[in-house]
Design goal:
The complex is a heterodimer of chains A (about 220) and B (about 325). In chain A, about 80% of the residues lie in helices and about 0% in strands. Chain A has about 220 residues and is mostly helical. The termini of chain A are far apart. Classes of the chains: A mainly alpha (about 220), B mainly alpha (about 325).
């Protein structure tokens, strides 16, 4: 096992995955969101294969296959179908504007470094360099969910956050048991389908998937 | 003595290569767009033509308008003495490090903006204010991303950074380096007035930045400013090429090593030129209000680069 190479590859891979997460904040159209998510999931698949190879855990290859099918093939296709149905959805006025969100995402990653620092210091895993980045991705995903107005972009934010959790788990444990991993995938799929149903309902009630309009329910 | 000779020949090389690089980018771009394109040495003819022409100046223009081209040209030329173009370490490394490089470039931008304001035309003022908007975000990004390299090398000296990468080649693929490369690449497009920030091939757009500032210039002043802006392109490309992929730089001052260094420099510049031409063919200009967002992205990249090279040491 080539440990320096593994450590370098895992940090590099985590950075790429995080970058796709931050790209979300820069883009506006739902199509770009879907693309970024798809690329991120593809990078995550590669990351799983790398961890499986260097960590000698063949189970991770199976997980990678599932991940590829679910997050690179199925979910983006569903997202595109919804996008077609609702027309071109642009995140034209998020709660926090783009430049500020980018700066804040930088700060969130710094925060992730600070939070993960004790962990990184005591750990002697070769993948420890990626841990703060994975945590940063979780924060960025959460930030997308909080600050974006369209229901669909919020779903992508949720999926990106989930990618972050999967990356953190893989980097920290070199693969949790297969059954747990499959459970998580099923969970994501279920969660996604439930949210999809919600989005359809929001759309048929409000003629828009802008969640801001749901404030009207209060009156 | 030989060190000084090297310094001067390196600056001369940059000065002579700069129009060629600009011509090359234009040529590749026109080929990609199915045009024949002007020959690559066209910029030399343009310079010769402009130097031969008379200067026409507005009556309202002050002394500032007259000295600005010289300051812009001189500050840009001074940078070529300080960056490792064909050899490292340089004898002038002790004179200026990366901060001097960044702020010499900013000095040129500053005087160009002042000169844009000076004759009091609407376009000049508009261009100056836009240029300053871009520069205000671009400069800290360059400084930050070169800092991330400096942290890895333990020195802000450009020559030292290059040598540190050469002695430890694995560093070149670390996330800090790659993120910083992406950040500087975006910023160099913005700083040298290329697409998607500014369109270098037109004077006719309301959204122009660089061309709006120099609209009032003619004759040798225009020649100096154009030359300086091509030189700036060369400087940014060679920073990208030699800080991140330093292989080929001469570490000893033998003729063979220097010849290899010049050849690899030209090769690297040609590759970067082709990449930029391809990007310029593929993408459209960003709306002006989207430009700070793009630069914000590159700032975040630079910030992440510094973080990862600082905390992962």
């Amino acid at each position: 096992m080539n440990e320096p190479l593994f450590s370098q590859l895992s940090t590099l891979g985590s950075s790429v995955i995080l970058l796709f997460g931050i790209t979300l904040l820069w883009r506006k159209s739902l199509h770009a969101y879907t693309d970024a998510f798809q690329w991120q999931s593809a990078a995550l698949t590669v990351m799983f294969v790398i961890i499986g190879y260097f960590g000698n855990d063949p189970e991770l290859y199976v997980v990678a296959v599932f991940l590829f099918v679910l997050k690179v093939l199925i979910l983006p296709r569903y997202l595109e179908r919804m996008e077609k149905r609702f027309g071109d959805q642009r995140e034209s006025q998020p709660y926090v504007n783009i430049v500020t969100s980018l700066m804040l995402s930088g700060l969130l990653v710094l925060l992730a470094y600070v939070v993960a620092r004790p962990l990184v210091l005591v750990s002697d895993l070769p993948t420890r360099g990626g841990l703060p980045l994975a945590m940063g991705l979780i924060f960025v995903g959460l930030f997308v969910v909080i600050t974006r107005k369209k229901a669909l972009t919020q779903i992508v934010g949720f999926l990106v956050m989930e990618n972050g959790i999967a990356l953190l788990a893989a980097l920290g444990t070199f693969g949790i048991p297969l059954i747990v991993e499959l459970g998580v995938f099923l969970d994501v799929l279920m969660g996604f389908l439930v949210m999809q149903v919600f989005v359809y309902h929001i759309h048929s009630t409000f003629e828009s998937i802008d969640v801001d309009q749901m404030n009207e329910l209060k009156h | 003595m030989i060190g000084y000779l090297l310094e001067f020949s390196q600056a001369l090389l940059a000065l002579l290569l700069a129009p060629l690089l600009a011509g090359f980018v234009r040529w590749v771009k026109s080929r990609l767009q199915n045009r024949r394109g002007a020959p690559v040495w066209q910029p030399y003819f343009e310079l010769a033509k402009l130097f031969g022409k008379d200067v026409v100046m507005s009556n309202n223009a002050s002394w500032l308008f007259r000295v600005a081209p010289y300051i812009v040209f001189a500050s840009t030329l001074a940078v070529t003495f300080l960056i490792p173009l064909i050899a490292a370490p340089l004898p002038f490394d002790n004179i200026g490090d990366l901060l001097v490089v960044v702020y010499l470039l900013l000095l040129g931008t500053f005087f160009l903006a002042l000169a844009g304001l000076d004759p009091g035309t609407a376009f000049g003022g508009m261009g100056a204010s836009r240029e300053m908007t871009v520069a205000a975000i671009a400069e800290p990004t360059i400084a930050l991303s070169i800092f991330s390299l400096a942290l890895g090398a333990g020195s802000t000296n450009l020559g030292q950074i290059v040598i540190a990468t050469l002695t430890n080649p694995g560093v070149a693929l670390s996330p800090g380096h790659l993120l910083a490369f992406a950040a500087i690449f975006i910023v160099s497009l913005a700083e040298t007035g290329r697409l998607p920030v500014d369109n270098p091939s037109t004077h006719l757009e309301l959204t122009m930045i660089h061309e709006a500032m120099i609209l009032e210039y003619s004759g040798r002043y225009l020649a100096l400013i154009e030359w300086a802006s091509w030189l700036k392109l060369t400087i940014f490309f060679s920073l990208l090429a030699n800080l991140f992929v330093p292989w080929g730089l001469a570490l000893t001052l033998t003729p063979a090593a220097l010849a290899i260094a010049v050849a690899t420099l030209i090769l690297k510049l040609a590759i970067l030129g082709m990449v930029v031409a391809m990007i310029e063919t593929r993408i459209a200009k960003l709306r002006l209000f989207r430009v700070p967002e793009l630069l914000g992205m590159s700032f975040v990249l630079a910030l992440l680069a510094v973080t990862s090279s600082f905390l992962l040491k």
